[in-house]
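User: I'm curious whether this sequence folds into something compact or stays loose and floppy. Could you predict its structure so I can see for myself?
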Amino acid sequence: MIKAKKISKEPKVKSTKKGAKVEETKAEKAKRRLGLRGAAPWAARHAAKHLAEARARAAVPAPPGSARSTIRSPIGAEDIKQRITDLHNALAQIKNLRKNVTKTFYDIGNILQDIQLRKLYEAKGYGTFDAFLEREIDLGKTMGLRLVRIVHTFLKDAALEYGFDRLAVALNVLDLGNDAVPAAPESKGASSTRIPPAPISTGALPLKPPGK
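Assistant: Here's the prediction. I'll summarize afterward.
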């Protein structure tokens, strides 16, 4: 009868110079062959070398106009980022204020005027303020321009007192000038010298002083 050989599962042992026996597990054998995390021993040295070279290149400023300089720090990158952030915040404020335009139209006009003066609309690729109003502002181009003109022309307290509708009429009168006043018909025998007509009463809206 043939007896099967018993396979020993005990870990192999290795002898040292002094003769002491040390057990060697499978994990230790794999670590000895492949290094840390299963990688070859040279892989860690190779990665460390490349990391040191990358740090050395990053420490030295790139020459102007080079590809590395353009990729790392575009010209005016921080300014563009800040302008985009400011425009995003302004649009969020307008979206919140337009829920009650009759009371907040002057504040919306202030925000739109700031966008126009600082040309923040260019941060989103618009060439003109009018194009920005048409596509980004739900109030529309015409009303947006009127709100900017109201802020530029009238004081806030007076504007809120008279309301947007009366201010819009006042702006139309200012645009038309004397053409908005009909000339009185001349009667026979009347003097050829025409007396200028009295201005139309618009409630005496106070205008903004120059420079404010």
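Summary: The radius of gyration is 40 Å. The chain has nine helices and two strands.
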